[in-house]
Amino acid sequence: MNTAAMFSSKKTDWETPQDFFVRLDEEFHFTLDPAASDENHKCHRYYTKERDGLKRDWQGETVFCNPPYGREIGHWVKKGHMEAHDEKTTVVMLLPARTDTKWFHDHIYGKAEIRFIKGRLKFGNGKGSAPFPSMVVIWR
After folding, report:
1. Pairing verdict, β 90-96 and 134-139
2. Which of 33, 35, 49, 111 has a C-alpha 20 to 30 A away from that of 41?
3. For strand 113-116 and strand 90-96, is the pairing parallel, antiparallel, or unpaired?
4. How far apart are alpha carbons 100 and 135 in whole angstroms?
5. Model-level pTM?
6. How far apart are alpha carbons 136 and 134 in whole angstroms?
């Protein structure tokens, strides 16, 4: 795994570990992956960068989202929070555990269930673990 890229904004779309996703899917039964690619989508219904999940409706879905971890992450977190205001929509996001950010305080803390992940995830086909902790955020 290119850990230098993980510390920079060179790569922002790290694939969710499949076994980690399967455990969440067993609990939530996801119907939409709005931040995916043709190669790494986790749900039958998904949006790619070209189809722009930020501009699409998530209403009535059970959403799994591992958003790009670059500067736009705050837009994804805000979108997940807003979409989950619909009582028929559940949004689950896999995020870096960055509790010092504006997006964490504006859209997660006190507004969502937070599950901090013990240890570090191995994203994509990498052999090494991520250099940051992760969390799962759930808006219901």
Report:
1. antiparallel
2. 111
3. unpaired
4. 14
5. 0.87
6. 7
The sheet with strand 45-46 has its strands ordered as 45-46, 32-33, 62-65, 90-96, 134-139, 113-116
Tokens of 30: 């996801």
Q: Tell which residue, 49, 31, 12, has the closest CA to residue 91.
A: 31
> Which residues 6+ apart lie within 8 Å of 78 measured at CB?
103, 106, 107
Six-digit token string for 81: 């929070």
3-state helix, strand and coil shares in percent for the chain, rounded to the nearest 5? 25, 20, 55
pLDDT tens track for 9-19: 455 566 888 99
Tell me the Ramachandran region of residue 15: left when phi exceeds 0, alpha when psi lies from -120 to 50, beta otherwise: beta
Q: State the first-to-last Cα distance of the chain, in angstroms, to the nearest integer.
A: 34
- Decide: helix, strand or coil at residue 52: coil
Beta strands in the chain (DSSP E): 32-33, 45-46, 62-65, 90-96, 113-116, 134-139
- Answer for the pair 93, 82: CB distance below 8 angstroms, yes or no: no
pLDDT in tens, 104-119: 999 999 999 999 999 8
Residue with tokens 């992760």: 134
